[in-house]
Amino acid sequence: FGAEDKLRVARKLDELGVHYIEGGWPGSNPKDILFFDLARKEKFKKARICAFGSTARAGVAPSRDANIQKLLRAEVPVVTIFGKSWDLHAREALRITLDENLDLIEKSVAYLSRRVDEVFFDAEHFFDGYKANPEYALQTVAAAIRGGARAVVLCDTNGGAMPWEIEEGVRKVRESFAGVEVGIHCHNDGDLAVANSITAVKAGATHVQGTMNGYGERCGNANLSSIIPNLALKLKVNALPKGKVALLREISRFIDELANIPHAKNQPFVGDSAFAHKGGVHVSAVMRNPLTYEHIDPALVGNRQRILLSDLSGKASVLSKIRAMGIKIDETDPRAVEVLEELKRLESEGFLYEGAEASFEMLLKKRLGLHRTFFDLIGFRVIDEKRAGDKNPLSEAAIMVKVGEEVEHTAAIGNGPVNALDCA
Questions:
Q1: Taking the model in full, what pTM does it have?
Q2: Per residue in 148-187, pLDDT tens?
Q3: How far is Cα 155 from Cα 115, in angstroms, rounded to an integer?
Q4: Could you give the dihedral angle defined by the CA atoms of residues 43, 39, 78 and 63, in that order, rounded to the nearest 10 degrees?
Q5: Interatomic CA distance for residues 356 and 104, integer angstroms
Q6: Torsion sign across C-alpha atoms 260, 266, 268, 270
């Protein structure tokens, strides 16, 4: 994403009702600095823009640390900083003593807390640290609280924790630090980021970090497109303002398109296949009652039920498609079975009708005697040529069709051979 793209995403997340948007790390690249410059001119209805960074470097006071100062220059009301909560990282990555690490955390949080509205502390590698040295992991949390952290966010940075480990860690922090807001930040390396985030909420976490569509390094971050509806519809947690959950599919697709990433059909809740049915038994049942094979009403997340056609389809699938096209047909009409048999024959030869509804409509109307031939193709020719090294390739198409007794013959230039044919 460029800075302008990030601003468009932020507007959409604000429309969704997200409370906080981490806009990037202003100390890491010019693009993120530009984003914060642009975001300051925006009026967000719900979201608060947050800058992300780390604690001060070892041996450097926060007042003299370049990254800390860049966080302040972003001029945002909220700052998130991460610090080491695994003793291994303090010793091996930072190469400082455990006490020095605690001092870094407390002083960095305290310095920022006096200068911005809210500071979130991301306890990096908390669950690995808690397994290795629970006492020290809790000491890092205590240091952030002493510094004035608005919330302490427990991070499964390597993405390898199991749900019961998440539950134990969250409960222990809540028991040890009464009244402190606890958050959760999960990566998806074990394919458990969504489950772990929801488990954390059940254990008492009230601050959930994630990304739309699960974008993130390695295997991704916790997917908010799944977490939000699970919290809102299954746990009855008011994660978003009333009615906003229905925007999920639209915003999920918007962000994928902006990123130039194909929208994952099999993504839960918001994917094209989330409420799609093609097995004959399934289709027959959902036609009578959608609850038979759908865990929620698709409209709640802005999605819709889809009936697909394939060699697994039954008569109910075909009847459903026919009626969706506005064609009246009786359940006992033998032509429905004929269409189904033709469909299965064609699929056995390699044709695929699952996503080709217009092709199915032609097949159907031919069987029902409703098909009309609008024109006959006499022929076409496409020429692609490269005329000079500094010129773009040229595509030209000529096409000849017959409508009734009249022949039409045209030619056109286009941006590539398919476009040229289309223009012609």
A1: 0.78
A2: 999 999 999 999 999 999 999 999 999 999 999 999 999 9
A3: 25
A4: -140
A5: 60
A6: positive
